[in-house]
Amino acid sequence: MKSVTIKRHLRESFKSLKRNGWMSVAAVSAVTVTLLLVGVLLSILLNVNKVATDIENDVQVRVIIDRGTNKKQEAALKKKLEKIDGVKKIEFSSKKKELDNVVGVYGKEFNLFKGDDNPLSDVYVVSATTPKKTITVAQKAKKLRHVSDAKYGGASAKKLFSVVASIQRWGITISLLLLFVAVFLISNTIRITILSRKNEIAIMRLVGATNGYIRWPFILEGAWTGLLGAILPILIVDGLYFWMYGVITASLSGTSYSLLTPGTFLWEIDVLLATIGIIIGALGSGLSMSRFLKI
Questions:
Q1: Which UniProt keywords apply (predicted)?
Q2: Model pTM score
């Protein structure tokens, strides 16, 4: 395609966007809403997967000691834990320290449980040699005397992955529905453009213009519509994530879990949103051309 032809197609696509006015705004708005929801959903899913993986790979087992267990019994329990195959390291965490951790995460309201009112138990934090050994260590520790419970990350991860799978199924369904609506609105916008320029198109066909020469300005118009519709979602998703990252990271401080850092994946979502916008815009235009011009 010659450079003159390319410039002509670009110029016509911009003119058509301006000419359609509110219909173009409606199409851009449809793309904006669609991509905003898709971007937010993607950000949530990626981070839920990240936290679930962190939990699953957590090699620590929290062995909760029965309340009322004395120091001698706790020492004996520690020796039994050390004999379990796969145990790498054992650390003691008093119920006071456990409460301090709760206060640090959830707020000073929990300070009222200090002293004799502390409902928490002493804990042995057992580190396993590998994530696979974690389950075995937890199961064996739970059977020991003076152990109330033994918790590990993998159990929570299984439930979390089940929730993620449900969110993914519903998310894909909703996203496809929204993308269909966006394509429909864009195709209607292009259809009006075609009807308003039917005489011009008829003349071009009479003088021998090729199908591609007639089609490209409309496809470009749809692509511009999709790209314009992607700009606002990209800005909102990026800004919202930077804010949420700061808030949630502060809450997760002191744990082994974390969110994805903005620089590692946001640019990928931005590129994806822009690409989806361009594709659904061009697709909507292509459908209009094929269906109503019969080219």
A1: Cell cycle, Cell division, Cell membrane, Membrane, Transmembrane, Transmembrane helix
A2: 0.67
